[in-house]
Description:
There is one protein chain. By secondary structure, the chain is mostly beta strands. It has strands at residues 6-8, 13-17, 20-24, 31-33, 40-42, 45-52, 55-63, 71-79, 82-91, 94-103, 105-113, 118-126, 129-135, 142-148, 157-165, 173-182. The strands form 3 sheets. Strands 1-6-15-8-9-10-11 form a 7-stranded antiparallel beta sheet, with no helix packed on it. A hairpin with a 1-residue loop joins strand 10 (94-103) and strand 11. The relative contact order is 0.28.
Amino acid sequence: MFEQCRWINEPAQWRLENDTLFVTTDTSTDFWRKTHYGFIRDNGHVFAASADGDFTAEVTVDGDFSALYDQAGLMVRESAERWIKAGAEYNDGALTFSTVLTNDVSDWSLSSRADTNRFRLRMTIAQGVLKVQCSADERNWTLMRLASFPSSGANAQWLVGPMCCTPERGGLEVRFSDFRIGPPVVKDLHDVSM
């Protein structure tokens, strides 16, 4: 799938090797719009492919998280004003799962603490609804976020891919593997199996 991707804010250091994307973040990178801090940042790194209509995207993330706001995961992006990023973020001395949904202004939501620096993420958009899930073992999935997120146009066109950024530093090393985009995985909300 990586062969179909292109960079939004290409980092200075990255490489593809054996279907794994290795990224080292640039300094002071982030995606954020207005809320609380008042600023707009749109310089984080995303290696994105195009997706039309409904889909499910998945990726395995393995990062060396250690500084405040170090983050890596997946992004679904319609424009600079309309996107969601989800994954792990280092916050208050621990790694937690987080999502930021943005419709002109960003909304930040933290969920459970991450027990591992390696995890799998799944984002599904189906019938105007976004579902974000994470898994440490790729068998059992935890719901991170459920939100209304319809396309703003008649034909949904998204940029989807691995995302990472470091608002407080540079140099976070992240490995992304087994990235794929396919038909939407539509299951009962409380079905946490594969």
